[in-house]
Design goal:
single chain; alpha/beta; Rossmann fold; 10 helices; 20% strand; disordered N terminus
Length: 272
Amino acid sequence: MKFIYYNLLVILVVLTSFSTVSHPNDPIPEHETFKVYSKQIGEERTINVWTPVNYKTNADSFPVMYMADGGIEEDFPHVANTLAKLIQENKIKPLILVGIENTQRRRDLTGFTEVTKDKEIAPVVGGSEKFRAFIKEELFPKINKRYRTTTEKSIIGESLSGLFVVETFFLTPDMFDNYIAFDPSLWWNNHYLVRNTKKYLANFPKAEKRIWFAGSNTEGILEYTEDLAEILKKENSLNVKWNYSPEPKEKHNTIFRATKEKAISWTLNKTE
């Protein structure tokens, strides 16, 4: 059993170590880039910001969507172009996208783990608490100062970044209003988040939160996204609006692009 678990873990680590396995040549949209030194993490971080077309033509304030894997060579162009398309088609209202470029991805996007094999995926893991503090205490104020923003905030992520999204949803739900996770790596720490979902929901804030998540046909991921959906269904928390999208025809490296538009549209439109 230990051998089987180790091989499965190796496969999952390979799958979830990168934001996407293949990177099509997404056009790089017009954007701004600046640096932020984080005391929480102890390093300088690169931030990419995309604003909608009408940001420059009026004085309105806009909601903000945050994302890890937010480098120009990562998923930032892909997500920014998707938002632009959905806005142009009047499927969502205009918003600002803030991408955080990775430095040590496995460190920042994983939480604490008691599983020895989990700890072997990188020299340092379990840094999600500090990464979250960087976003909340250092990046939020910087973005609010530089741009015209409303109080509404969303977060989007895939794979290990999806794990970070779900962890943030449960541990600090007031940090964002909307959460989107594609194929989240819920296997981390012996699927700790799923095993403790009922406890988290029992202490959830009264303000409504929305979470959309999807699971591909990838073994080691699918079973835990399904388990999470089943628990949310049974608990039926009135202040949690959720949507689970099982995608048996999709693989780990295809699910983001296959489901991105319906994920963002459902989450931001708030019609359900």
